[in-house]
Amino acid sequence: QVQLIESGGGSVQSGGSLRLSCAAAGYIFGTYCMGWFRQAPGKEREGVARIDLGGNTRYGEFVKGRFTISLDNAQHSVYLQMNSLKPEDTAMYYCALEYGYCSGLQPTEYKYWGRGTQVTVSS
């Protein structure tokens, strides 16, 4: 069983930065993809970014160069550096993992999920 534990959320002012971390525990093996998703109250969960073991990345259109996802394969950890944060970035951020090759940024493509970490951006 895979467990994902997120950390690094918090409250910042508009224009500020946060770095989210996610550590995967359990028996991690083979090829896998890790991603970050977010869900604001009353909205559907949406893909923020994902990365494969080769370091190939994909970002949601709303990121527009503000966020950077990175992976430490040895530690089975994924990070999300978020800069130039906006109030509309306020949401619960979730880490996810799926075995196999990365495809898109649809939540349905990922089997394992963390419990989330809250990000709040004030204007």
Describe the structure.
This protein is mostly beta strands. 0% of the residues lie in helices and 52% in strands. The protein has no helices and eleven strands. The chain has strands spanning 3-7, 10-13, 18-25, 32-39, 46-52, 57-59, 67-72, 77-82, 91-99, 112-113, 117-122. Strands 2, 4, 5, 6, 9, 10 and 11 form a seven-stranded mixed sheet that branches. Strands 1-3-8-7 form a four-stranded antiparallel sheet, with no helix packed on it. It is globular. The termini are far apart. The model has no long low-confidence stretch (mean pLDDT 95).
Question: What's the count of strands?
Answer: 11
Mean pLDDT: 95
Q: How much β-strand is present in the residues? A: over 45%
Give helix and strand order, one letter per element, not per position: EEEEEEEEEEE
Distance between the termini: 40 Å
Largest sheet: 7 strands, mixed
Radius of gyration: 13 Å
Number of helices: 0
Structural class: mainly beta
What percentage of residues falls in helices of 4 or more residues? under 10%
Overall 3D form: globular
Low-confidence segments, given as residue ranges, are: none
